[in-house]
Amino acid sequence: MASENAQTAAQGGLETLGARDAALLESYSAVHMNVFGTPLRVMDHAKGARIWDVDGNEYLDFLAGIAVNSLGYGHPAWIKALTEQASKVAHTSNYFATVPQITLAGKLIEKAGAPEGSLVYFGNSGAEGNEAAIKFAKLHGNTMENNTGKPARVLALTHGFHGRTLGALSVTWKPTIREQFGPLVPGAEFVESGNIDALRAAFAACDERGPVAAIIMELIQGEAGVLPVGPEFVRAARQLCDEYGSMLIIDEVQTGIGRTGEWFAFQREDLSGGVTPDAITFAKGVAGGFPMGGLITFGKRNSSLFTPGSHGSTFAGNPLGCACGVATLDTIESEGLIANAEERGAQLRDALEHCGNPLFASVRGRGLLDAIVLKHPCAHAAANWALEHGLIVNPVAPGALRMAPPLIITAQDVDQAVEVLAAIPDDLPDD
Ligand SMILES: *Cc1c(COP(=O)(O)O)cnc(C)c1O
């Protein structure tokens, strides 16, 4: 299966790029700020779980944007919703509302099983959902008894990721992407993920350091390499929040909308320990490829903290995004894609565990948010090798390959992906 060309590319080069691709990528670099590095390919069109570059090469997409294209590419229901809405009204300010907006908010509350009085705020990205969540935490912090004179704190976890805007970055752990932008929003504090004693100590330090307004966490840390934080830890966080009057905010930006085999990851006992959060954020998969994100506050009291004028965004609740969101949620339901995520995920992990590739140490994840843990840190070369062999996976960490395919993938798609992954050579160069 491995051609000479692929071997060369796997060594880190782009030697097998097609001619059009190579020329366009040079043009790209001449006009784009270099925050993403050089893209791997220039993509032209896509259908279902497959995408083609400008040189006509076909790829099976086991990343789906990054967990964004829930329905794959070009789903008829999604295209119909988008084009029909575009021909009706594409944008209004928030001085006005639209029907898809109202419908989507209602559906999200219903899918989350959120209690009576729960409310939705729409933004345009995951970071914006988390900005709203941090403001929510601050509004709550203002209502807390506070003898320290210090602002209420927001706790976050080591290895957590919540976005690149300054508020979201304040609670994002990775020092190399955070520290150069300091000083950031004060009052953010990191607790070691999984360490219940450290968590208890952080809450208990309220007399010296200010009360804890909230803790924000993912249930599977996607950007860290698909790491579950563990149900016992989440349960402990819920108990401490109850004890200290703090908010439990779960970032479902990557894990939400069916990705982990439930509508939201907190609905999985094996991820959340069965707790109910005070708020969740969502984005990536919600509108099947249209930029959209937001916050759901649970219950009446939590939902009364924001008042007219306390938050907003020009594009918030955009009708195109909301129409795409409604089509995405309805299609996930009508096509049984949550069950498919669970079944295809189990098939994928099982096949990878038994595929005999000596490079693989283990496989982890839930539903269709999964990672292969590598025996040595060659994720970039491994992902490049897969790309050269027609499969998109993501070197999320030097020792981990992330997979987040569209929820529509079939058993045959999984077989095809596993065939490529099983053949990744184990002597590739480290990152
Ligand atoms: C991707 C991601 C974000 C940021 O979303 P953007 O749309 O890139 O701003 C926040 N939290 C988690 C868990 C994510 O995976």
Could you give the distance between the termini?
A: 23 Å
CATH homology superfamily name of the largest domain = Type I PLP-dependent aspartate aminotransferase-like (Major domain)
Give the number of DSSP strands.
17
Q: What is the CATH C-level name of the largest domain?
A: Alpha Beta
Briefly note the CATH topology name of the largest domain. Answer: Aspartate Aminotransferase, domain 2
Biggest sheet, open or closed, and with what strands and sense? 7 strands, mixed
Oligomeric state of shown chains: single chain
Uncertain residue ranges: 1-14
Count the helices. How many?
17
The CATH level-2 architecture of the largest domain is identified as 3-Layer(aba) Sandwich
The geometry reads as globular
Listed once per kind, the bound small molecules are: pyridoxal-5'-phosphate
User: Average pLDDT across residues?
Assistant: 95
What structural category do the secondary elements indicate?
alpha/beta
Estimated share of beta-strand residues: 15-25%
Number of domains: 2
Please give the radius of gyration in angstroms. 22 Å
Spatial arrangement of strands, main beta sheet = 4-12-11-10-7-5-6
